[in-house]
Design a protein that fits this description.
Layout: H1 2-6, H2 8-23, H3 25-59, H4 62-69, H5 74-86, H6 95-104, H7 109-121, H8 124-134, H9 136-160, H10 163-171
Length: 172
């Protein structure tokens, strides 16, 4: 029963897909093609991420992470979180295993949130595309508007969480 509960959403999606396919075969085929393409993309991205995570977990001691991105890291932790998020490659779902390692290593929760915000909005490949397609004025305006809000939201999220919630996050 626990397995069924865990995969209930996937089973519902599968059931709905089967219904759609039985009503309109081309729509069902399109749904399946999109799902297969998404799965292929995910499989191509996750193994290198997992390899890098394993290396990060082994090569970077917890004390080093605490020193540079931990509770007393100050501006250095914020800068490193933004840099790590900006040089990242891949879709957002690839960032979540990295955040899990950061939490395991004791990275301050606001820095974890800043990392996620930077991953979403300041990635270098995205900036290069924006520069070529939308121009430097738009790109740098967006960057200078986004960066302060990423930092503010990181601290706001950490501040809104109760102490026991944070402890539970770090425990799990």
């Amino acid at each position: 029963m626990k397995i069924l509960k865990r995969y209930i959403f996937s089973l519902i999606v599968l059931f709905v897909t089967l219904i759609i396919t039985s009503i309109d075969f081309n729509s069902g085929k399109s749904i399946i093609n999109i799902a297969v393409d998404s799965f292929k993309q995910m499989i191509s991205v996750l193994p290198p991420i997992m390899l890098l995570l394993g290396l990060l977990d082994i090569w970077v001691p917890r004390e080093t992470m605490l020193k540079y991105m931990g509770e007393n890291s100050g501006i250095m932790g914020i800068i490193l979180a933004i840099i790590f998020g900006s040089v990242a490659a891949g879709p957002l779902y690839a960032a979540f295993p990295i955040t899990a390692v950061f939490i395991k290593k004791g990275v301050k929760f606001s820095n974890v949130m800043i990392f996620l915000g930077a991953w979403c909005t300041t990635k270098i490949p995205t900036l290069l595309f924006e520069l070529s397609a939308l121009g430097y004025k738009y790109t740098f305006t967006r960057m200078f508007v986004n960066l302060p809000f990423i930092i503010i939201l990181g601290y706001l999220i950490e501040g809104l969480l109760k102490e026991e919630d944070l402890k539970e996050i770090y425990k799990n």
